Amino acid sequence: MYSRRAYLRLVGTGVGATMAAAGGASAEVERLPPEAAESGSWGEREPLPVLQSDAGGGVLDGELYYFGGFETGTGLDAVRRTLVFDPEADDGDGWREVEPMPRALWAPCGVASERKLFSFGGAPSNGPYGGENPPSDVVFRYTPDDGWTNLTEAAGVRCPYPNWGMKGAYNPDDGLVYCVGGGTNVTDRESASNHGADSRTPGTFDESRIWAFDPKRETVADPDLARMPEAKRWPAVALVASGGRQFLHAIAGRRGGAGPTASNYRYDFDRHEWSEMTPAPRGGNYGTTDNPVVDNDVYLSHGIFWSPGDDLSTDIYGTVCHQYDPEEDAFRRLSSPRYPRTGPVDAVIDGTLYVVGGHVKRYDEDGLHECVEHNETFSV
């Protein structure tokens, strides 16, 4: 186990990458779990009416919200567009467009509480790569009655650090939102790392922090609650229970320019300690990252999976589905989805997992981000 105090003594020494390799969380070896006897079933619902990927999302009143992200192109053309999907509507009537978010951002962290939807951070068009458009620390709130409110402008509320590719989950038991990791700006903060890179290149730094936000008071409750043993972006974040206690998992993801990680870290809220659990079957960015939990099991699907040194092509896109049982600390393979992609919005509504949108990067076409419209569902 790793306590926050012990980890603070090691920050800045490259411990994140070292521990990942020593603990078997390297992306270089694929660990294939056994296939489940009952593997669930995939279906399709009404596709996105427009193409945008790496959006934020959340569920309010049984409806899925899909906001921000970028459109198809060789750049990263961020949008403000906000869409809502009603799973109870007939196909053809499920999607509607509502008020756009206050600023065009891609890879914002979307989290919904009981009555509000929040957007934390995100990167502007063509940022943060190149250094001219750094990631943001803004906080927006949405309600169906009032639309979007820029809490940063209205009340001075900000994320503790600039971010994109940060992930989060709402805990109804204590009423707090927990935000985890994410890419960040070029910085000397002890909580951030560029994973041993020689340069200070924009886009290579990640954060290790978990921080807490109070959606009722609309304030940061704890800017530095805990720090993961390695800094990473796009982790799959999941709130689960085991042995009668509650834990937060940060599974797989990416470490800046150092490449993918399969690490699976569990944070104990009671003991304020980290445990290194069974690594994910594959290292990289899963598509389902926003608390994809059904009946206390975590469902990880889609994504990009590769090893350092690989030639990047569409071959790194995987149509996979892995179930993680936190009680057994074990993964199982489930039936595969149909469409390869990364950067979708995922949400659980009435026990069904929705995986919406995303893109495929065409490396041989000048890095074209080809956004897709797919709206797949997984039923356990």
What is the CA-CA span between the terminal residues? 32 Å
Overall CATH architecture? 6 Propeller
Proportion in helices: under 10%
Number of strands: 34
User: Are there runs of 5+ residues with pLDDT below 50, and where?
Assistant: 1-24
Lateral strand order in the biggest sheet: 1-23-22-21-20
Keywords: Kelch repeat, Repeat
Region (Disordered): 31-54
Protein name: N-acetylneuraminic acid mutarotase
InterPro entries: Kelch-typ_b-propeller, TAT_signal
Quick take:
It comes from Halopelagius inordinatus. With 380 residues, the chain is mainly beta.
Folded structure, characterized:
This protein has 380 residues and is mostly beta strands. The protein has one domain (2-50, 132-379): Neuraminidase (6 Propeller), CATH 2.120.10. It has three helices and 34 strands. A five-stranded antiparallel sheet has the order 1-23-22-21-20. Strands 9, 10, 11, 12 and 13 form a five-stranded antiparallel sheet that branches. Strand 3 (56-60) and strand 4 form a beta hairpin. The protein is globular and about 50 Å long. The two termini are 32 Å apart. The relative contact order is 0.18. Residues 1-24 have low confidence and may be disordered. Keywords: Kelch repeat, Repeat. Residues 31-54 are annotated as: Disordered. This is N-acetylneuraminic acid mutarotase.
